[in-house]
Amino acid sequence: MRSTPALFALFATAALAADAPLLKDDFSAPKMETRRAARGEWKFAGNAATCTQDDELYKKNKDHGPILFYDLAYTDAAIRFAVKPDAANKSVVFTANGAEGHVFRLVFSQAGMGVRAFPPEEKDHKSISLGNEKAAMLKAGEWTQVSVELRGSKATVKVGDFSKTYEHGSIARAKTNLSVGFSYGTVGVREMVVEK
Q1: 116-169 pLDDT tens trace
Q2: Homologous superfamily assigned to 21-195
Q3: 167: closest CA among 155, 179, 184, 178?
Q4: In which element (H, E) is residue 57 found?
């Protein structure tokens, strides 16, 4: 009977580990094993990552701006983060990527949010539109919560008060990383969490 407390502790530890996030980045440190900050000079302060686009780097990287990559294998996951663009920002892009390329993408611009899927059978890895949402806007100078829940062929997206589920078979593919990038201006990112 003395082993009962030890077994309880073992089961409690296993239960806590099962509920632990796959990834949690509070941006308290400039380096994190699974994070790659690229295409710009990212600053890490106040539990946020912030970067201003460098126009020379933008051209050098074939019109691709600063980006935060997270190397993480997953298929189904709930991803959430907050983002704050400034008034000069033209786009913020969230992408879930697989081994063969992009799987699912959100593109925020001054026109709203574009939702894209990348069917593997499409020639040249072209994307298809799943929706264009004028109601899903990022406000300049304000933090906006973004949540993307990927379950099988469905993606439920929440942006502030906006919420909608999209469906396409290609979303169910295995993913190898995720990213948040942008073009023009300055953007801050904080509270990146990925859960099963």
Answers
A1: 999 988 777 789 999 999 999 999 999 999 999 999 999 999 999 999 999 999
A2: Exo-inulinase; domain 1 (2.60.120.560)
A3: 155
A4: helix 55-60
